[in-house]
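Input set for joint prediction.
Command: fold jointly, output tokens.
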Amino acid sequence: MAKKLTIDGKEITARDDATIIQAAHEAGIVIPHYCYHPKLSVAGNCRMCLIELEGRPKLEISCNTPVADDMVVHTNSPKVIEGRRGVLEFLLINHPLDCPICDQAGECGLQDYYMSYGLYQSRFQEEKVHGRKVVDFGPDVVFDSERCILCTRCVRFCDEVTHTNELGIFERGDTAQIATFPGKQLDNPYAGNTVDICPVGALTSKDFRFKIRVWFLQETSSVCPGCARGCNINVHHHDGRVYRLKPRRNDAVNDTWMCDAGRFGYKSLHENRLLEAAARNDAGGLTPATMQDALARAADLLRDRNPATIAVLAAPQGTNEDCYLLAKLTAEMLPGCRITMIAGEPGDEDDFLLRADKNPNSRGAQDMGLPALASPDDVAQLAAAIDTGKIEMLVAVDVDLKAIFGTETFARLTAKLQALIVQGSAMRPGSEAAQVLLPSAAYVERHGTFTNFQGRIQRFNAAFAPPGASQPAWRIYRRLANLLGADWNYPNHEAVWADIADTVPGYGIDYAAIGDQGCLISSVDSPPSGRG
Amino acid sequence: MRKLTFWQRLYLPEILRGMLVTTRHFWINVLRQRHTVTQQYPEKPTYVSERYRGRHRLTRKEDGSPRCTACMLCATSCPALCIHIVAAEHSDPTVEKHPASFTIDELRCVFCGLCVEACPCDAIRMDTGIFALAAEKRENFIYPRELLLGDAMPENIAEGKAPAP
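tokens >
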């Protein structure tokens, strides 16, 4: 049964167990708050979410007041605004007002609400209470007790979400402060989230500190490629450079969290990038080439050979569009070639977000027609086939060749191989042995979809243009196929998706309909041609 | 065109009239030199109004360190995007943030003074009165922190090399 109430003159139907703030937010009415967080328990200590309830003499906090039938709520009455103003004045009494050096400036709850509800002249004449500055909480988190408003979001996060209990409130009155328990560090694999949920500048990220002011950053919604979960993220970037990743809410995947490994995964985007295409010249050295020339060279190498002697080594790092065209390219243009999907080293897994499979699209790659992830035996067999001369040519896609074969074996294999084409976004170990190097775009530089381990198709967007000559991998495959004699016409990623939707069972959905929250394969009409 | 009168067409009387004006000014300048408008620049420094927006300088705290906290408000307000600051952690936790590098590209600067107005710490001023910025290379117009603080000119600048980024 649902409850019916009125908020700001708007008739609202809310869930039975909802609080007023939840009901209001679901109805699109924003109530200012600090300590309330949709994914944490209610603390009710910041007093910022005050609302006026008709029939009650005093203001109530909306985060801890359950909805009831026939309630009449005012969130913006003069009484409420006066109340908020008073709360803000209290919260700011001991605040150091060091916005110029505070990393939170620009996205700070205190700044925002002061501009909306405060705008008073300070009446505080006394000396402010001084606290601890730049306290090292752990590998990535720095704490400033003067800026803290003791909302306890971070404490509740460590208690309720990670269950690691590193943080607590110590002392009392105006000397009360957040601190780590003696001998403990805030070093759990999700510690970075405490910085995200801190509504003020009390917790800042060592990694992001002072790198850039937040108002310079642009935001693009994306999906973390760090593991098979595919946490929804926002990429914060400026001038072709990623400065940080922030989790984006998706209750079906990652709630409002992400792990630190994924959070700092952006760093590899700017390391060792492969920016220009290259081809081996007659003297045996790799020289920069135009994409056109490098692709023509690659096509020549592929064309002159029996496809059965060609092996493709790929990692499920590519998007569904990439995987689909790679599968199509190998099936139509190189029938009989051997494809090996490299899983890479499995990583940490837990019962929260982290998955052992560190590839973002293992599920999608298989759905697109690429084989299942290879076992070490498969790799050994491939190495043996190269040794015996059965495989003469290798096409490596986004893989670390030296890690797969081992440095010595790889050196032996390159001597045996007649040709090696490497496509990837970065120079990886072993790439330097290639005859042709094809630079492809990283996930932040292109549109596409991943399918996570749950079978959820998730869309991500290009934050900025690919650097140098790099291109989305599907475009490279399209050009390669056309050079090999195909007649493919995919002007953009949506055209590739349209083809996927028509042919791949379970994927029959319009690209736009995938939306920002993704959609499950099973929820889609299978098999093909379910598309409208 | 206006038609010339008879006297004007005679030419010489008009020339004499012009010479008269010139001669009068010559004698005024010779006899009342303190009132001449001609300035002996650059031999003598010229007058610059107190509010004149000259070359920027960075101010210092009492202990001699730069007042700038690298808050980036000047860089944010700059319409010419000529201020480049790299912020860094300060060893003193009460200072916390300071500019590891602070460069102004004086060739891009339009001398609007918005940076001075934006600065919450009075760390940047344009009260040097310096308006004749000259250099032999474009790179020398990228003024580093040391120069703006009024320290000795770094050697690489003196030699005409670009400052280290």
